[in-house]
Queue: 2 jobs
Job 1
Amino acid sequence: MVLVTGATGNQGGAVVDALLHTGAWTVRALTRDPAGPAARALTERGVAVVAGDLADPASLRAAMSGAHGVFSVQNSRTAGRTGEVRQGTNVVDAAIATGVRHLVYSSVGGAERVRGIPHFDTKWEIERHLAGTGLTWTVLRPTTFTSVFTMRGAGAGLSLMATALGPAGTLQMIAVTDIGVFARLAFERPGQFAGQALELAGDELGVAQIAETLRDAGRRIRYTRRLPKSVLRMIGPEARMLSWFGESGYAADIPALRRIHPGLLTLDRWLRA
Ligand SMILES: NC(=O)c1ccc[n+]([C@@H]2O[C@H](COP(=O)([O-])OP(=O)(O)OC[C@H]3O[C@@H](n4cnc5c(N)ncnc54)[C@H](OP(=O)(O)O)[C@@H]3O)[C@@H](O)[C@H]2O)c1
């Protein structure tokens, strides 16, 4: 049995899907709102939904009771910096206290290489806490989600990326469904993935190629090729992420990942799926 945090959200939801797909795992889902529609949909699919809060260690220990594995993800936007670190370390500490055998933590691509991006620094702090314990762990480091390009306001995001990357720069990206698959593989093959950190991407494209791929799949996107640099400064400390995208950025080994998971999606294949 695996306890999945964030199960009503993007990554956790994908992990639930991947675990249920094989029929080999029993899934328990953590949510603050077991009566909500997303939780009820999970219950209908045979998932045991438990109430809990990542900020409440006792609720985590109760939710992890009897679990073989835990998938851990935090929402940096809603938790805030100290909140995210506390939530991430709470999951690690509860896993130790309850004898969990394998913890899969979703961090972010480049967390170990770049400093000064607030929601990367928090994840690196959680990774270091995890690595210092005796737990068996796997860290997944996802790059940009393909879904950011189909969200409302995607054009504004693409304009910022175009400004940061320039005409020659590229960006790596991953479908959240594939994050789910890698989490499942980690639980299935601890011999291969215990103690490993995997930066995850299924595609690498320039901004013009991203827009073209979206257009070819019937999704028009309007973006500006070059915004004034002052716009980047206006978005605050997270602008550091965009400048890092332009300097070095994500560095997943996509061919190696595709050997592990041959179905790894490109942006085009994700859009058409
Ligand atoms: N967007 C990207 O391109 C990208 C790339 C790499 C990494 N990331 C990282 O991905 C993370 C977000 O992942 P996501 O998109 O999968 O998250 P999400 O779907 O936005 O997260 C929402 C989930 O978190 C749960 N949650 C939030 N606060 C909670 C709390 N206090 N206690 C228990 N559960 C809580 C929610 O559960 P309930 O509401 O049901 O309780 C829900 O299931 C961020 O940390 C971000 O930095 C994002």
Job 2
Amino acid sequence: MLLEINNLDVRYGRNHAVKAMNLNVDDNEIVAVLGANGAGKSSLLKALHGLVPVHAGSIVFSGDDLTMKSSAERVDSRLALVPEGRQILVSMTVHENLLLGGYRRQGSTLLDDIESIYERFPNLGERKDSQASVLSGGEQQMLAIGRALVARPRLIMLDEPSLGLSPILVDQLFELIKNLRGEGISILLVEQNIKKALEVATRGCVMELGSVVLEGASDSLAKDSGLVHAYLGTQN
Ligand SMILES: Nc1ncnc2c1ncn2[C@@H]1O[C@H](COP(=O)(O)OP(=O)(O)O)[C@@H](O)[C@H]1O
Ligand SMILES: [Mg+2]
């Protein structure tokens, strides 16, 4: 198993955001985490990336216990996060943002990898010396994903990547997610676009108030959409 999440608990004071969560992601899998606003999805990903403390439970990635490790060490283990809202540095150039994604790496292979990001996303290549603030929303999402790829991840966690994108860009994004899997990268995908997420995912789960209330193969979850909608409110 690539990622094992065992009884994971995240608390903010008395607010219990993630409750004894268990979830696994295997090599070559896309696992969707669905749920309404406030369900605990971002808290889960932040805990997996060491950005909020783990109150209880453990996180094992490629056989290493990461529970107490820093974010930087998790990047070294090749676990990457594309955070909610993209979080790119808009006053820096596209190229500088990509260099930051490789801050734990050294040498010329980093620049080769950045070149391959420009080949994958030609719009970024054309604007590599421009401030990231000039990028469209879709390009900013590509930059956020490119920055994660520069760390050569085995697993990428994406937090609501389709939020705010036009339908055409949403389709391109999900195409990219499928391609990444084809390249051997596993994906933990937090989404509110249930339909699209379950189309690309192998398995999925639904969170409500910090707990997994539904999980299974994505085709069976998609058939169960009445139930899924019940947990997600009216957005979809
Ligand atoms: N930094 C924080 N401090 C206190 N409470 C927080 C913080 N971040 C999130 N929460 C709370 O934790 C719960 C889960 O939030 P979050 O993980 O952002 O959910 P989601 O990503 O599913 O919308 C919510 O009740 C939210 O208000
Ligand atoms: Mg969130």
